[in-house]
Amino acid sequence: GFDLIAEQVGLDSRLSAASLVLTGEGRLDGSSLLGKAPLSLARRAAARGVPVIAFAGRIDLSAADLAEAGVDLAVPIVDRPMLLDEAMTATASLLHRAVARTLRGLILGHRIAISAS
């Protein structure tokens, strides 16, 4: 199904124009490697040299597996110990905070790179 949707929305041309891809899934695990949308997207982006940041409620894949699938950075959205029910209820807020943290890190890295040059 992913390839059909990708074709319908012109994903490849959109990726060619992209500087960064943000994607996410509830849980990045072995089943994610079998063709689920976030890692299918990451593979397509990586093939075009576009960096990918994946957000997930839980990350069970190794850094090597994620890198092989095209994910440059995997960010857990849960930022403190909590029960699954609490995490599910707070998903939007947790995701927002995780994206904000990640973007602040990217901005900081950019500032450091500029000051070093």
Plain-language structure description:
The protein has 117 residues and is of the alpha/beta class. It is 53% helix and 17% strand. It has 6 helices and 3 strands; from the N terminus they run H-H-E-H-E-H-E-H-H. It has a 3-stranded parallel beta sheet. The longest helix has 26 residues, at 91-116.
Quick description:
The protein is an alpha/beta fold and 117 residues long. The chain has helices spanning 2-8, 11-16, 37-47, 63-68, 84-89, 91-116; strands spanning 21-28, 52-59, 73-76. A three-stranded parallel sheet has the order 1-2-3.
SS field, number of helical segments: 6
Termini separation (Å)?
45 Å
Net shape: globular
So what's the oligomer here? single chain
Residue-averaged pLDDT: 95
Helix content: 40-55%
Number of strands: 3
Q: What fraction of residues sit in β-strands?
A: 15-25%
Instruction: Let me know the largest β-sheet.
Output: 3 strands, parallel
Structural class by SSE content: alpha/beta
Low-confidence stretches: none
Instruction: Order the strands across the largest sheet as they lie in space.
Output: 1-2-3
Cα-atom radius of gyration? 15 Å
| SSE string, helices as H and strands as E | HHEHEHEHH
